[in-house]
Amino acid sequence: MPRRSTSSSTGRSTGNSTASNAPRNRTPQAVRVRRRSFGDFVKAFFAFVALLVLVVGVPGALAVLIGWPLPHGAPGLDWLQREITVDTFLRILTVIVWLAWAQFTACVLVEVKAALSGVGVPGRVPGAGPSQLLARQLVAALLLVGATAASLTPGLSNLGHSLEGNQKPTVAAAQATPGIFAQQQEQAASTAAALAEQASHAQADAGHSAKQHGDTKYYRIQPPEGRHHDSLWEIAQRHLGDGRRYKEIYELNKDRIQPDGSRLSEASLIRPGWIMEMPGDAHGGELVEMPDAHVSPGVQQQIHDYAKTGDHAQGGGSQAQGGGHADNQVSVPQQRPASDGGQQHAGDQHTAPAASSSNSSTFGLPQALIGAPLLAAGLLGALGRRRRQALWQSALGAVGGRRGMEPPMPTGDAADAQDALLIGADPDGVRLLDRSLRGLAAQLAGESRALPTVYAAWLSNGDLHLQLAQPAGKPPAPWQLGQDQTFWMLARTDAERYDDVDTAAPYPGLVSLGTMDDSRLLLNLEAVPGIVSLSGREADRAAVFASVAAELATNGWSDRMTITLVGFGEDLTPLAPNRLRHLDGIDDLIETMEAETRQRRGALGAAGHDSVLTGRTGPAQHTRWAPHLVLLAAQPSAEDAVRLAELASDASRLGIGYLVGTETGDLPGAAWEMEITGQGKLLAPLLGLELDAQMLPLATQRAVVELFVEADPEREPQGPTPTPPFLVDISEQGRPAVYARLVGPYEIIGLDTPDGDRSALLHEALALLLLHREGVHPRVLSSALWPRGVTEDVRDALLERLAAWLGADPDGSPRLSADATGRLVLAKSVVSDLDVLRSLYHEATQGKGVDSRAVRGRLLTDALVLVRGPLLADRPEGRYRWLTHEIIDAQLPLLVADIGLALSAFHLEKNRAEKAIEALNAALNSAPADERLWNELLRATHATGDETRLQALAADLVNRSGARGLPPRTEALLDELLPSWRSGVAAVG
């Protein structure tokens, strides 16, 4: 596929490039001053008259003609019984007019302040859409004829950055809107265009003057301090007075070569040491001008070189791809035009910082995880399984005693890594990839066709392209031939039709290497005819190796595999102890692989298969056909390299893949040679590839491993039992302002139901925040609500509506705010029944209930009453899909079971067996699969002395267990309580 080129220096564009995306030419040019016409003065005059009438004339007329409309004293009860007269009606209308005047006057003041200050965009007056639009048009028309309008209103100069982007949509909207509104929109469009033109001329004049005087200001990106990282938002906040002006800095520096040779391509991706040219009104001590004697000669030269790239900044040119299809070559599939930009997953979008009400930003989170949706989905899924396993083992007391229902709360870098996983993960993409590959294998097996050898897979705009080693005929429907006979293509809409099938994963060795344009490459390591070598700096190689190992260990399109790590990754084993294996040196590796190679050759010969692919389909599929992937980061000696090359010569047929690191780039037996550069590019010249590499840097790697170590079910408890993240005041004085019922049907008490279609979205956002009292990163929230991506303005609008809906406490503090890390948090006055449930159980078992039996019984009873069913029982179809990433669905049944067990023990202490049975049955309604509840119910029923009742319960348990039979512990308990239960069950059956 020909790569899309960016705009050239001549102003032409190809592919999907637009003029608005082209780098701006900042060479000083003559300024064409737009002269004000007679029509401009006429418009300004009428605007002045209209403002004078509306702002001054209306209140004056009301005061003279009507007077004060409200009563002069406190009205009595008889006032409500008076007859409504014409005078009363007029006074009511007068109050409404006064309110409308006050709102319009506020709009005028806001627009005038924004125009004169030039900082950011005008604020929005609540509920004043049409009024504020009218005020904006009148103020703009009035300022248009000012002699220094452009210079006094630098905020308007922002309109001139992208003239097409600001003018054309308004004109289009005016043309599409009938009637009087179309005329108003058209007038607003022409006014905005005139302002934009004049402001851009003034800005060009100011820029030209600045260039002449040599006082252009620069800022050097600072290295991180602790968890704080520099960001364009914060730079704009410090030096321009408004973080929302970060886009101006981005536009000034986009695509310009930085001192390290890389370019600024995304506003959220900046590196320490980069140089940023700043707008002319920037201020602050960290800025430098050129020339400046206080700047070191090295930095001075870097700034001088950087300044020279500003005239014709442009994106890197495209590199021609390999045209032929040799047996060992990978090429890019031709992409179809994206049918819907909204289908792109949030993990593949690199959005600029959010200008949200919480002043949050996208910075500080590991971009390596946010930009790797398949890797993030695998890690997130594996982490969830690990935490659920730890919960169950804790509940059963299998390891280290009870550890409570709350897993350790990640902090620091681990918390950032968890947020990045939630943002970047694309579980739908993993599911579609897995179903598509297994569905293809099942179809080929049904047609008695062999699986084709696949070198690589490309994910492009949701479509899946498989690159075959050689033509394999026509693919089964709905697969289609791609650009030639060596490509099979499956559209996303067709992939969604596949269901889960019971067949072995056909290509478990696929692993993401990076992206090219809109395509993501997955290389099939086990199919490469020989060794894949990777050269480059040691740290960069290690980051690539770690990414490959982590994805192979946790991906969702594999069944079983062995991943052997040599020379790195000893600390990666917590990610998947059953898959990852670490060897100390190359000698151990060669000895191990020689034995396995012999074993696999013999097994293939005995089974009559020519390769592992034929052994993965049909009745012959067996676990011995699982791949073994070797990742060797250490540089092998010449002798060891030859031995590895001999082992790898037949590796693809045996399902064994080798990825070997090298310092020189020259490795004997290497079929494919790749190089990782210091700028994060993965190069394979012979394959015609230049990718943005998928990497897992050391700091991010350690943070991810920390998450898995903390969730390890075999790990001994550290410190005291964790308390719930949010404890509420359960006394009568602790009545909350807003109370949400999540355990069962979703209900909210204390708030009005929002109108319109946004109600469901606001409810979902509030539920996510209630389940995470520690705080939610704004990008985590947007990724949960819009898993396929969303723009910043839509997200920010939701946060504004959510904050307005929740309102403020009596002391004026908002109920939705941001903490020091930028995460969204709810006030303590907003409480859910889950918070109360956790608080009641905690108080009963670790608080006042420990020393008082009566208090413990009351608290446990109150807690069990709150349980009305499963979490969010009536949630709409298609929403709350983020719950699949949570462990609350495992925590809640265990918590309910713990409450039922504690209340049962409370009653059995006083021989109240019936009360104990009642509590256990109530808990079983929400936790029907908890074996502990059934065992305790057997004991409580036995305590009644009614053997017939116990026999009926045993029969019910046997029927519920089905073909699996009773759990061993339950069966042993029945043998103790009712030795004749087997014959009794048979008689009942």
From TrEMBL:
The keyword Transmembrane applies. InterPro entries: Bact_Kbp, BTAD, LysM, LysM_dom_sf, TPR-like_helical_dom_sf. Keywords: Membrane, Transmembrane, Transmembrane helix, Two-component regulatory system. Residues 832-978 form the Bacterial transcriptional activator domain. Residues 313-325 have a biased composition (Gly residues). It comes from the Bacteria. Signal peptide: none annotated. SMART domains: BTAD. The chain crosses the membrane at residues 44-68. Residues 1-30, 198-225, 309-362 are annotated as: Disordered. This is Bacterial transcriptional activator domain-containing protein. It comes from Streptomyces spinosisporus.
